[in-house]
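Hey, can you fold this one?
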Amino acid sequence: MPPPNAIVTLPQHIREWLDQALLKQGFSGYQALAEYLQTQGYSLGKSTLHRYGQKLERRLASIRASTEAARMLAANVDDTENHLSGSVISLVQSELFETLLNLQEAADETDAAERVELLSKAARSIAEVSRASIANKKWQTEVLAKAEAAASRIEVIARKGGLSTEAAEAIRREILGIAN
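Sure. Predicted structure:
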């Protein structure tokens, strides 16, 4: 079993300080950080700090990208057909998949019990996302069926009221959202 990650063994307040220092320094200056931490009684090498900084930087970049994608979706997606929820579910599914891949790659860095716990959490998350996806698709199917039923009823009513076939068909297309 590999030894625990040196960063994980640091007290919480030191890790928080380290995260802030890495952000302020633009994820550079690892040698100076290592030297400062040594003066505080923590023996961490420049390479250890660099690996940690890279992971933190990737995580922050991923969060920024996800946040920006969510903003773009919210601003540009007409959600009348619940496309936004479907898009968010797809983003979460992609992120979970990437997390599983990263977990497999980190197999030699984590102990077996921790890995099993992480896999268990990932499996629960995947199950929840799958349930949400199924519920979303079921909702879309139900809405489409209701719209089709309403369009058919309106078409019949419109024809009885004396509207032309073309006008009734135009109303039907509008209800179903396929108007030109």
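The radius of gyration is 27 Å. Let me know if you want another pass with a different chain boundary.
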